[in-house]
Write a sequence for this structure.
């Protein structure tokens, strides 16, 4: 076994031991630990910014793309926001011990379904430094130990943030090994995590682009909470209010173009397109968004480029929107079913029956009426934070907060029952 | 692509189409379909018994082991029980559409977490013919389409049962393709299912022994609901009532030795062993159970064989029980954590504090106080039936009934909200 493999195996064993302690810790102790993590991050702002400057300089020297450097770069406000995000997680309701259901059987057995931690998580992510803090806080809130493996270009930042997290854990008498950071840039570490570390990892959470997702799908030997791309749709129904439609589409596409909840395709009813599309398109074009439409859409908005079939599958993460005019709600649902990624899809309409039909028939993690798809976010849902948006149908779907990082067990209390 | 691969791909596509119809069917329609399946199974008793006699004769001719032939063989009472089991599933509460949680955000967004079907299930099982009926009924109750692949030795029986299921679906105007049976004995069909049939399969449920579980772990490219072995423990604490302890251990081990909830290891406190073990052991030995103990247990019960380390890991599924005397509750929990499979574990004690400590600290799908581990069963939990007991920590843990075969989506209703 290589030295790295030995180190990672020891990390898995330490995480398992820490998980047993965390599972039996009380909510107050975990709250104190998370609040102390937040305070330590704020206190260590200078160290974190120093470390981050080191990462950013190395990234510039290596010629990394500007958006990547943007995602990597911290300033004092960003560190304060990170500390504040962790503090929010300290304040949310503790999920553990909740009796999710309880009933008594005719034979007198008392059965309770009780929320418990999953155990050991492994989060594999890329360059955003705040993920180190968010993932640690959410894991501990849910009573899990976690092994963090961030992008190598953010390693100095991650080490500095992790040092603050360890301070928080120790100050609340929780084991420092509850949150461990892989401190090598060696990509073999990812392969070892995906192997499950001899059964020590209960759940792998990948947060990254397509190449990471594909590697995880091919190599993972432990359960994975899938986070795939967001090919999100906004469907403007014939009975849409034109102002709401314009404002929602503009926000859903352009508020931030790089998030997975950004709308990538606009669908409009044939019956409403002439009334609704021109003003929506004008607002988008004025804001610098490229439009790629089908023939009908192009007729209504001549400044639109032509969309190919590939556009309906595209997650642009850029100021580009594909536009299609469909005969009716059936066709809109059919388009979303065929081309969508099951992430987040919205209808804009004042017609209650059409809205409810859309909400029932579109099989996505999040379906919305008369609201921006950019609300696909754990914070916006009131979860206090999120580790990502799951497009998996199993275990957790949609925003993954602390509650989604738990499982349950059945606690059965009897007084001597035997089975006939 | 082979002819089989083409057939299986078409099956996946048909299942996907059927799943869409099922997801929008109403509860009454699914109830009528399941009740009609039950009636058709009862009506077709003669055909099912004929087909089964064919399977049993072939199994005898092939020299299959007696327990396998036992599991395969049906009589009129078994068919009636199968019809009755399906009817029970028709009568349980429909899980779909349940609003699991609903809240309003400060910006007025109304967020509901609503229970919806998973989509397309694939159940891979072995020789028990009743699984064909149970899996079909539970899948349809939860609004899922299902592809069934039973053991080749039970293929004639499965075809006859499946014909009755199709009648039930069609009589309620649901698509026959909601429940499809793989009608070939070719084992390549299992490989194709494990490949996920081009994304058509949302969840694979394997029900079988170690070789199936290992094949699934190695080959599956769709999510799997794990069902591993049950190395279950009954821990007789020093403060146990001796009569309850004897009756519970006898039942937990011997009621049926072949079920995954059967106790395989008896743990006793040092402080109580001399008082409690001799009478428990005598009852077990008189009932024909072999005992394999550690040195202390052997001193107390001379007619006990010696246990090796392998015995602590063993899922005997036979009238054999390993017996270990431990210093205290800590050591009992440690033993279960090390050797158990996270399935079902029980404590027998009159001491409330000890009981609650055990229930909190043992991280298994089901933990019991003063009751037989053989209660690990969906029917005994009141689920109306089960497709197995999940030892996975993700998605569903413990008995998997209709509710566990669902997922949820978030339905968000707004009136024009955009994200700042």
């Amino acid at each position: 076994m290589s030295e790295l493999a030995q180190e990672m195996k020891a990390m898995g064993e330490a995480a398992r031991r820490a998980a047993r302690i965390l599972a039996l810790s009380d909510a107050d102790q975990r709250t104190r630990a998370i609040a102390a993590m937040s305070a330590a991050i704020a206190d260590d702002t200078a160290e974190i910014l120093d470390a981050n400057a080191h990462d950013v300089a190395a990234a510039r020297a290596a010629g990394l793309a500007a958006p990547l450097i943007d995602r990597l770069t911290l300033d004092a406000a960003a560190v304060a926001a990170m500390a504040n995000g962790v503090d929010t997680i300290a304040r949310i309701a503790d999920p553990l011990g909740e009796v999710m259901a309880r009933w008594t059987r005719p034979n007198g057995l008392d059965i309770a379904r009780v929320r418990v931690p999953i155990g050991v998580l492994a989060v594999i992510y890329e360059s955003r430094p705040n993920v180190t803090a968010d993932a640690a806080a959410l894991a501990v809130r849910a009573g899990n130990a976690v092994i963090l493996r961030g992008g190598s270009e953010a390693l100095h930042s991650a080490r500095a943030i992790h040092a603050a997290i360890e301070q928080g854990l120790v100050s609340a008498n929780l084991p420092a090994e509850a949150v461990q950071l892989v401190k090598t840039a060696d990509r073999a570490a990812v392969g070892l995590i995906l192997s499950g570390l001899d059964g020590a990892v209960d759940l792998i959470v990948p947060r990254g682009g397509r190449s990471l997702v594909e590697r995880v799908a091919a190599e993972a030997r432990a359960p994975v909470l899938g986070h795939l791309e967001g090919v999100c749709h906004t469907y403007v129904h014939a009975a849409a209010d034109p102002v709401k439609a314009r404002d929602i589409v503009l926000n859903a596409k352009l508020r931030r173009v790089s998030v997975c909840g950004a709308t990538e395709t606009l669908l409009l009813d044939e019956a409403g397109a002439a009334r609704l599309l021109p003003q929506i398109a004008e607002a988008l074009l004025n804001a610098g968004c490229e439009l790629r439409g089908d023939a009908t859409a192009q007729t209504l908005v001549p400044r639109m480029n032509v969309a190919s079939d590939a556009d309906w599958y595209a997650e642009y993460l850029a100021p580009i929107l594909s536009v299609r005019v469909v005969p009716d709600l059936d066709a809109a649902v059919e388009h979303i079913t065929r081309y969508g990624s099951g992430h987040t899809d919205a209808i804009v309409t004042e017609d209650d029956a059409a809205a409810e039909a859309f909400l029932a028939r579109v099989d996505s993690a999040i379906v919305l009426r008369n609201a921006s798809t950019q609300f696909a976010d754990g914070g916006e849902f009131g979860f206090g934070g999120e580790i990502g948006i799951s497009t998996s149908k199993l275990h957790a779907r949609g925003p993954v907060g602390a509650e989604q990082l738990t499982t349950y067990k059945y606690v059965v209390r009897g007084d001597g029952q035997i089975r006939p």
